[in-house]
User: Fold this.
Amino acid sequence: MRVNTELFSKANLARQAHVGDEVHLRGLIEISNHCRCNCLYCGLRKDNLRIRRYRMSPEEILAAARQTAEFGYGTVVLQAGEDPGMKPETIASLIERIKDLGLAVTLSLGEWDRRTYLLWKKAGADRYLMRHETAHPDLYSTLKPGKRLCDRLDSLETLRELDYQIGAGFMIGLPGNPEIQHQADLSLLARIQPDMAGVGPFIPNPDTPLGAFRAPSIEVTLSVLAQVRLTLPFAHLPATTSLEVLYSQGRRWGLEVGANVIMPNLTPLRYQRQYRLYPGKGQTGKAAANHRALMELLKGLGRSIGKGPGHSILWERRENIEKTK
Ligand code: 5AD
Ligand code: SF4
Assistant:
């Protein structure tokens, strides 16, 4: 495939026109790598015995959240596998304490029941990330044994109904996906109209059953990202860690084809190394050095740092419409 520079500049212009030059920074804290699921692509799958499992204590999580605030980032993202050992009440009180720091809270903790989503919302959670992974129902159930795409979509609907800002998204180049350009995924995103879209390349992990497959090419990866921006002009779109892990310039390229969010990893390094969804993750070095490199990158690109919590533009609009009703 040829590099489609026309598509890239169209996506970059759309990004500039609809979400501006600000890049929103979200401090990512990987609070537990336990997972009850067995997704074929992911290193946290329960059958993978090659990682040491951890669960961060509330005090450790709060320390990382304080660091997020010190760096001036407006949001903390609490991410984990689907960990039944995490008590919903513990998470709720953690959310309350993080909100006291003046930060927005995004959750990425997998599928729970409505009561739990409500508990966390009442505790102050602002957003919930739950990628749909693939829009093909059969492939979804093959890659996520025991899970169904329709349940995932129901969860996203429930979260929206509870007034979360929601994030959907998928992996580019997932083995078994019949479409290189991900039309079905793009159509599904257009239907969901998420506030955020997490879209990054699949990276084969040798500790999983999909270890022998290949990652998508950079051309395909960037062109799909650009299409996501054009499909969702107002959404927050991160240049993902997977993009950065695959290509040393990945973050920059992502920001140049439509991305407007970066999620620097603030998980303590000893845990980050065990949060190994795919190889190369958790090798990013110390938070302070990463922060400096990121500031340099943004300066070089002429992009400013997002101020405040960086809420969803679509969600803020919906809120304003509600208020005037
Ligand atoms: N390559 C790329 N992304 C992955 N994820 C999980 N495993 C991989 C992999 N091997 C993504 C999934 C999940 C997110 C937290 O990480 O899309 O939703
Ligand atoms: Fe668990 Fe998520 Fe990994 Fe699946 S992708 S094994 S749900 S952490």
